[in-house]
Design goal:
Chain lengths: 434, 338
């Protein structure tokens, strides 16, 4: 009999948890005690370890809410026959059979019981907390309320959330439809890998004060390849490691890259991530099939220090907005709702502090304290450099310092974020080459 | 740290205790481990309310410290107290029933993990207040001294509690009045996420004893024999009317502070390192090395413990739930004060 992997209760008043990511794929083996999946509760995110040795099957999909104490996957012994999923997920929309209510009977706080009843009743939209106005707005806009992130009390979706989503949908270059599914790798930094794609993977390193999600406009154009996104230390979901120098930063990213054990990869880096990519290409030449640098740092001393520290300092959408707008040529694409969402991702004061410290170490007094021109000269990997001519953060003319063997793509009317500002064009350039 | 070996090279516990006593001690250590593993599983399934603190990895400290105590002797325990309960002879079925909120539990299902007491066994109770057991222990020791019962009180507390006022007041008063109490600090290196290095001004918590003119000793809390040797000597001293002592058992909790702990403040290597110093495996080896038990007997003891825990869980599962109409029962007395 397979071992149930249950959604564990990890908080006093937790009734259900959301599956954030699986650390291994279905059909892969795990040993008892190894990290198996990440969950998120109302209060915190948490790693859950495998309850037994076995081969993973029938996993609940990422993003699914599962009531505590009920299965979210099963572990099979070597050679054990894997048939139908032994039982439906308790949180599953339209789950045919109810999970055994006995498991939670009487000992569950009333609230949890109600949630479970909701879940058993099966109507997907019914278990989503949402205000009536949010529901009507969503249905009017053809959005599924279950896809929205609620910012109200206990995750309730509010009208504002729907409006934000609508605004975002209109500015997002790529349609929301079929977003790529990423799964987390284990290791010192947060690394996520897309589930689809074949051939040589594309490894992407974002820029300062950004994170892996900034690649999403590009992803649709590149999804024919496996996509691997690395969050820099102190960014996104990566730990807030102490980084005192550019060399420290490179060491951490190189370790994460080495942990991936890739024989070949296309490396794409933006801004600070571009600088890190140059350093990686300098030391990992054999493993790189190509290098793409988008507005990379490291090719000259100038950088817009005010914008960097302004972004780090901002604690509110009102103060973040002007700086975000300075990143792009056409300010209109940075809508208020986009800013609110960006601020929501920077709410963690420790994250902002870690980034301030990093900025101070790498860009003291608004100067790029590291110079990678010599490294760039040494690189023989086919390299293309992409820059927007209205870049107000790092002057595009730094691109002219690159050796002649590298290709240059310079875009008019584009600022520091070509991967967002002209993602379709960038997608075409990259996908025809990678 | 103290030498745990007697002059003729036999560990103290082996020389001091009978084979039956030692095997019983090993069984209690297994019972603690399996009780907590069972409780952890039930908690994750949502069968247990509130929060819960597991002492897996600290079993030698709990059992070793209670070896020379009778049911007349008292203990006070902590928020991480399941092991102390078991070491002092608690009924595992009633413990589980309490966790499950059943009428058959120690507090009729009203208290949960941090409120189990068993006065019939001399267990004055767990305590949700860090350091809360220290003044109680001093009070119990004072009453024993005044009544001349000869009982000794062992007071368990954590490294976190050693920086609380209650700790210093308790040690001072116990010393001034030469009370029959043994302060046993279970130094598991962290109070929640704060390491002792960051929280405590002295290197060893036992160093605090000097300030209160009592003996203080630091031992390997995962070494059953070392624990018994230190605590037994302190109990002896207390019984002889020579006053209190402080014993520091250096140990480690394998699990997080509670189930909500994300272990961000310590490394996996550190945890693995301590897991390789499993106090139960060490105790089993101690018994087999000295021909107190064969490996088969050890396996039998472990199997026994597994069965007892399964039965305890079954007992608790079957128990009656409290009735809503009786929610105020045992809360207000029906007798009016006269
Ligand atoms: C007076 C008081 N302060 C704070 C708390 C919250 N708290 C519960 S356990 C704990 C840590 C105690 O650490 P330690 O004494 O080392 O015991 P351990 O948890 O390591 O066994 C704290 C701070 C409390 N319960 N009581
Ligand atoms: Mg502690």
């Amino acid at each position: 009999m397979p071992t149930e992997v249950i959604m564990p209760k990890v908080d006093m008043d937790m009734a259900k948890g959301k599956i954030m990511s699986w650390h291994i794929a279905e059909g892969e083996r795990v040993s008892k005690g190894e990290p198996l999946f990440d969950i998120e509760t109302d209060k915190a995110a948490m790693e859950v370890e495998a309850p037994a040795d076995g081969i993973l099957h029938h996993t609940a999909s990422e993003g699914m809410d599962i009531p505590i104490g009920t299965p979210c996957a099963w572990l099979y012994a070597e050679g054990e026959e894997v048939g139908e999923q032994p039982a439906p997920f308790a949180g599953q929309a339209g789950a045919g059979a109810a999970p055994e209510p006995k498991q939670v009977e009487a000992d569950v706080p009333v609230e949890a019981e109600l949630e479970l009843v909701d879940a058993i009743a099966g109507e997907a939209t019914d278990k989503v907390r949402a205000t009536p106005r949010a529901r009507s707005l969503a249905s009017g806009a053809g959005l599924n309320i279950a896809d929205l992130i609620g910012t109200g009390p206990r995750g309730r979706v509010q009208a504002l959330d729907v409006e934000t989503e609508i605004a975002l949908r209109d500015t997002r270059p790529a349609p929301l439809a079929s977003p790529l599914v990423f799964k987390a790798e284990t290791g010192s930094l947060a690394v996520t890998r897309s589930k689809g794609g074949t051939g040589t993977p594309i490894v992407m390193i974002h820029g300062f004060a950004s994170d892996a999600t900034s690649w999403s406009p590009m992803e649709t154009h590149l999804k024919h390849r496996p996509l691997i996104r690395i969050d820099l230390p102190g960014h996104g979901k990566s730990p807030k490691l102490r980084i005192d120098s550019f060399a420290d930063l490179v060491r951490e990213v190189r370790r994460a890259f080495d942990d991936l054990n890739l024989d070949a990869a296309h490396l794409v880096g933006h801004s600070l991530g571009g600088a890190v990519s140059i350093a990686l290409a300098d030391t990992r030449a054999k493993r790189l099939s190509s290098l793409t640098l988008i507005a990379p740092a490291g090719l000259g001393p100038d950088i817009n220090g005010n914008a960097l520290s302004g972004i780090c300092r901002a604690t509110r959408a009102e103060s973040l907005g002007p700086w975000l707008r300075s990143l792009v040529a056409n300010e209109d694409i940075v809508t208020d709702s986009y800013v609110r969402l960006a601020m929501a991702g920077r709410e963690d004061t420790n994250l902002r502090a870690a980034q301030s410290r990093l900025a101070d170490a790498l860009f003291p007094d608004g100067v790029q304290a590291f110079d990678l021109r010599a490294a760039l000269e040494r690189i023989d990997t086919p390299t293309r450099i992409i820059w927007g001519k209205q870049d107000a953060i790092i002057p595009w003319k730094h691109a002219l310092r690159a050796p002649g063997k590298m290709a240059l793509h310079l875009f008019d009317g584009v600022g520091h974020m070509p991967q967002i500002e002209c993602s379709a064009e960038l997608g075409r350039i990259l996908s025809s080459n990678l | 740290m103290r030498d745990t070996v007697t002059p003729n090279n036999i560990p103290y516990a082996i020389a001091r205790y009978s084979a039956e006593e030692l095997k019983d001690a090993l069984k209690k250590m297994y019972l603690i481990r399996k009780f907590e593993e069972g409780a952890e599983d039930s908690y994750m399934r949502g069968l247990i309310h509130g929060t819960m603190h597991l002492s897996i990895g600290q079993e030698a400290s709990a059992v070793g410290s209670c070896m020379s105590l009778s049911d007349e002797d008292k203990i006070t325990s902590t928020h991480r107290g399941h092991g102390h309960c078991v070491a002092k002879g608690a009924d595992l079925s009633r413990m589980f029933a309490e966790f499950f909120g059943k009428e058959s539990g120690y507090c009729k299902g009203r208290g949960g993990s941090m409120h189990i007491a068993d006065p019939s066994k001399g267990n004055l109770g767990a305590n949700g207040i860090v350091g809360g057991g220290l003044p109680i222990a001093v009070g119990a020791a004072l009453s024993a001294k005044r009544l001349g019962t000869g009982a000794v009180t062992v007071c368990f507390f954590g490294d976190g509690a050693n920086n609380e006022g209650a700790f210093h007041e308790a040690l001072n008063m116990a010393s001034v009045w030469k009370l029959p109490v043994v302060f046993v600090c279970e130094n598991n290196k962290y109070g929640m996420s704060t390491s002792t290095e960051r929280s405590t001004s002295v290197k060893n918590i036992a160093d605090r004893a000097v300030a209160y003119a009592m003996p203080g000793v630091t031992v390997d809390g995962n070494d059953f024999s070392a624990v018994t040797e230190a605590v037994d000597a302190a109990v002896e001293r207390a019984r002889n009317g020579e006053g209190p002592s402080l014993v520091e058992n250096v140990t480690y909790r394998w699990r997080g502070h509670s189930k909500s702990d994300r272990n961000r403040y310590r490394t996996k290597e550190e945890i693995a390192d301590w897991q390789s110093r499993d106090p139960i495996a060490a105790m089993a080896k101690l018994l087999t090395d000295h021909k107190i038990a064969t490996e088969d007997e050890v396996a039998g003891i472990e199997a026994d413990a597994t069965r007892i825990i399964e039965e305890a869980i079954a007992f608790a599962t079957e128990g009656a739930n409290p009735k809503i109409e009786e929610v105020t029962r045992d809360v207000y007395t029906e007798e009016t004060a006269s």
